[in-house]
Design a protein that fits this description.
Layout: E1 24-25, H1 32-42, E2 46-52, H2 58-68, E3 78-83, H3 92-97, E4 101-105, H4 121-134, E5 144-147, H5 160-171, E6 177-183, H6 189-198, H7 204-208, E7 220-223, H8 224-229, H9 238-247, E8 263-270, H10 287-304
Parallel strand pairs: 1-8, 2-3, 2-5, 3-4, 6-8
Antiparallel strand pairs: 5-7, 6-7
Length: about 325
């Protein structure tokens, strides 16, 4: 599994082909009309979800939704905002502008086993998936749910962020998830540190993650079959836990087949988002908190897989004079 990823150009591959682990699909590989027809043929709905922690991010999200509006009702069946705040009414102006968008108040509709648990992006994602399956009665195993961060700067965003990952899942029968990857013109500090740490782990699946063009992208499309098997962390550890679940074969997506063979990456070009400060404040989480959560999740997962042992050093007894 070492070396660069195999570039997958869909016209050159059969729909039922066994794909190489973490194959890279170039942006612009799928025609939106073709993807819409595939969706109709499969009978698999497509749900797009934007996790949003604060209402102050609504202005940026408005700009992203404007670009996606031509896909509403054709390729995208439903757009959701998984809102982590306590006052969903604060998004009224946004939903008035886009009647096709629904707000899921994650903080107010937690599943029974999440009551009292810490909040965060992962918690909002899990609560939404529970709502989608139990309340909205979405049960098709090939239904596609795409999570995209709401803080992407509009100049870097375009409909391909939805068209190509959804197209990859609907076109290739073996694909259960498509991770959106990109080039960061600035930033990516935590991503760089994590890549160095993973390089030290003596496990073929974990080493294969080095093929990813970008490790900690917060954007991924996946089938309901995949999302329903994924363990989810409550906070910012959700991305690294997702990758390790694939690398360590914790998902069991197909008998006798490594989970990584069911994950592709889709390149969408350059990306930048609203940057977090280095240090957290009472009003805003910084890179320090994010890094702590990511590294804790990494160590926790590696210890559970018996790939890391953490041991308190034995201190020598004091020498009496």
């Amino acid at each position: 599994m070492s070396g660069p990823p195999v570039v997958i150009r869909p016209p050159d591959w059969e729909r039922g082909a066994q794909l190489p682990a973490l194959g890279l699909i170039p942006g612009g590989s799928f025609d939106p009309e073709v993807v819409s027809r595939l969706k109709q043929t499969e009978g698999a709905p497509v749900h797009l979800v934007f996790p949003l922690r604060h209402a102050r991010g609504a202005g940026n999200l408005h700009a992203l939704l404007l670009m996606l509006r031509p896909l509403f009702g054709s390729l995208i069946d439903q757009v959701w905002i998984a809102y982590g705040g306590d006052r969903p009414a604060a998004l009224r102006r946004l939903t008035d502008a886009f009647p096709q968008v629904k707000v899921f108040p994650a903080a107010l509709r937690l599943p029974p086993d999440q009551q009292g648990a810490p909040r965060g992006k992962g918690a909002a994602m899990r609560a939404f998936l529970y709502h989608l399956m139990v309340t909205e009665n979405v049960t098709h195993p090939r239904a596609v749910v795409t999570f995209i961060d709401a803080d992407i700067r509009p100049p870097y965003f375009h409909p391909r962020w939805v068209v190509d990952p959804v197209g990859a899942i609907l076109w290739f029968q073996a694909v259960e998830a498509a991770k959106i990857v990109y080039q960061r013109p600035r930033g990516g500090r935590l991503n760089t540190m994590l890549r160095s740490l993973l390089a030290l782990v003596p496990h073929a699946g974990v080493q294969a993650l080095q093929k990813l063009a970008y490790l900690l992208s917060g954007e991924m499309a996946g089938t309901l079959k995949f999302w329903s098997r994924l363990p989810v962390k409550t906070g910012f550890g959700v991305e690294i836990l997702t990758l390790l679940s694939f690398a360590l074969d914790h998902l069991g997506l197909a008998p006798g087949s490594p989970d990584l063979e069911h994950l592709v990456q889709v390149y969408v070009g350059r990306m930048d988002h609203l940057h977090a400060p280095l240090t957290s404040t009472p009003r805003k989480r910084g890179l320090d908190q994010m890094a702590g959560t990511v590294f804790h999740t990494l160590m926790e997962s590696l210890m559970a897989a018996d790939l890391l042992r953490w041991q308190t050093p034995v201190m020598a007894p004091p020498v009496m004079a």
